[in-house]
Amino acid sequence: xxxxxxxxxxxxxxxxxxxxxxxxxxxxxxxxxxxxxxxxxxxxxxxxxxxxxxxxxxxxxxxxxxxxxxxxxxxxxxxxxxxxxxxxxxxxxxxxxxxxxxxxxxxx
Amino acid sequence: xxxxxxxxxxxxxxxxxxxxxxxxxxxxxxxxxxxxxxxxxxxxxxxxxxxxxxxxxxxxxxxxxxxxxxxxxxxxxxxxxxxxxxxxxxxxxxxxxxxxxxxxxxxxxxxxxxxxxxxxxxxxxxxxxxxxxxxxxxxxxxxxxxxxxxxxxxxxxxxxxxxxxxxxxxxxxxxxxxxxxxxxxxxxxxxxxxxxxxxxxxxxxxxxxxxxxxxxxxxxxxxxxxxxxxxxxxxxxxxxxxxxxxxxxxxxxxxxxxxxxxxxxxxxxxxxxxxxxxxxxxxxxxxxxxxxxxxxxxxxxxxxxxxxxxxxxxxxxxxxxxxxxxxxxxxxxxxxxx
Lengths: 108, 338
Prior knowledge:
heterodimer; A: mainly alpha; two-stranded antiparallel sheet; 4 strands; about 60% helix; B: alpha+beta; HSP40/DNAj peptide-binding domain; 3-stranded mixed β-sheet
C-alpha cells in the first residue's frame, strides 16, 4: 500500500477564475487549441489582460461541448460557432416559454 | 439478474442486412438529431443518443456485429436476456463505476449492461477511438468548518483496476482461463494516499488529484480524481458569501442598553467584543478579518447578530427593579403608531 501525499493543484468554485493552463488542464484540451478557439470567437476570456487571460468556470463545459461537436458530429469551427449560438438562442426561447407557461398557468 | 435485450438494428432504423455505409449514414443522421449538445435540457434525447452510440459501436465494428448477430434473430427489444453459460469470460465487473466530474464529461458514452454482458467492459476491444485516457472519477469529502479554516488531511482509499500481471490482461493462461483473475484480465488493488485539503477551501469547491482516476487503456494516462468539498453545518457559525461567518450573540436587555464587553467565539478562538450602549436586537456587528480563512490569503469577516434574550424566571428583586423602570421610563417603543 503506497502512501504518497498529494497536493491539490487547483480548486474552484462557481466564482473562481481559471488561467489558460488551468482551463486546458480542466477540460483536457491543449492550450494552443484553446487559443485557436478564442481566435474563432468560440470562447471568450472574462478578463483579457495580458499576459494571462482569465476564464469563467463555465468555459470548461463550453470547451468540452466544442470538442464533442467536432469529434461526434465532425463539425468544423465556424459550424461549431453557429451551433453554439443557436443553442444559446434555443435555451433563451425555452426559458421564455417556461415563463409564459407559468404565467398563463397562474392566471387560469 | 436478467438483462433487457437490445435490438441495435431497430435503434438505428436499419435492416439486418444493411451494409457498413448504410449503418454509418443512419448513425450520422440520428447523431445530428439527438446529440445532447444540440438538444439542451432534453433528457430523452440524451438517453436516445446513448442508445444509438451503443448500437453504432456494435454495428459499425464487423467483429462486434458478428458476435451480436450470433445471438440470433429470435430476440425482440426489451426481452429478458440471460447470457448462455460458458460465456463467463465475457463478464467484467468494473470496480468502482466512474462518473464524469459535474456530470459534464467528455462523452455521453456509458453503455448498457446488455452491451457489457456481450462485449465485456469497455477496456480492450476496438473501443472508442477518441478516448483511451482513463475516466475521471468524482467523489465527495465532508469537512468541518474548523477544518476548512485550518486545512485538513484525508486518507483516501480507492479501488484501482489493473491489468492482471499473471496473464497480461488476456484473461487466458496456457490456453485456460487465467486462475489469478478468473479470466477478467484485470485485478483490483486498493490504493491509498493522502489528500491535503488546503486552508480556506470553500463549500462546493472541487479538489483535483491528477492521475488518480480510472485506468487508461492502451498505455494511456489515468484519469483524474475529483473531490467535491462539503463543509458541514456548524452549530455556532453560519457561512455567508463564501468566507464570512455569522453568529448569533445573545444579550441581556441591560447589556444592550448600557453597553458591555462580551466574549465572542471566532474560528481563531474567543475574542472580547465591545457592544456599544443602545444596541438593538437584530443589529449586526462586524469583526473585520475574523471570518473563515481565504485560499488566496487573508480572512473573511465575522458578523455578529445581536439577539436580545430575557430571563423567563426573573427573581423577585429583578421583577421589582423592572417594575420601577416600567413606571419611571418615558420610552415609547411603538412611537409613531396610531
